[in-house]
Design goal:
25% of the residues lie in helices and 32% in strands. With 180 residues, the protein is α+β, with helices and mostly antiparallel strands.
Length: 180
């Protein structure tokens, strides 16, 4: 389920790109969260499908993103609005495999921390069929936004992202099987 405002979703249903969004309360100051979000090469620390992000001499970012069936897509973005400690907005460039536009906002919530809101629109590669395939393989942006923001919260509040690996972190060990 998306937390995108109803008027934005209505606009999307009327013919614009699909829109996804999520808001979380994170127990950190806005300036700390903003600084971490601006560090694009570290996105792979909390964004599961991001393989790598490289910055070019113009300040654009080239993303390599996991796609269904072991493939990857390239996304090239530029920052279109940057308000320190408050907002970062971006859009994809024409040579990208995915057409997207979005923003993340950081709103001070006093002693409780910061409300972090992420809203983005996208055109999936392969159109509607590509969107369905991405959803099937849990690579669909609506799913990823929720998961990635939750991992960002974990990283910022605890310094690490939790996983569901077995206690020894060995794949051969199942937490539900007896080791006797």
């Amino acid at each position: 389920m998306s937390e995108v405002p109803a008027w934005t979703l209505l606009k999307a249903v009327q013919g614009d790109r699909p829109v996804v969004g999520k808001t979380l309360l994170i127990n950190r100051r806005p300036d700390e969260l903003y600084a971490q979000w601006k560090n694009f090469p570290r996105f792979s620390d909390f964004m599961e499908n991001v393989r790598a992000i490289e910055r070019d001499e113009l300040g654009n970012s080239r993303w390599t993103i996991k796609a269904p069936a072991g493939t990857s897509v390239t996304l090239i973005t530029r920052i279109r609005e940057d308000i320190p400690d408050r907002k970062i907005a971006w859009e994809s460039l024409p040579e990208s495999d995915i057409k997207t536009k979005g923003q993340v906002e950081f709103q001070d919530a006093g002693d409780r921390g910061t409300l972090v809101s992420l809203v983005m629109s996208y055109d999936p590669p392969g159109g509607r069929i590509g969107q369905l395939a991405a959803k099937l393989f849990a690579r669909e942006p609506n799913i990823q936004v929720r998961h990635d923001l939750r991992r960002f919260k974990q990283l910022m509040e605890t310094g690490e992202v939790t996983t569901n690996a077995s206690p020894s972190a060995r794949k051969s060990e199942s937490p539900t099987e007896s080791r006797v």
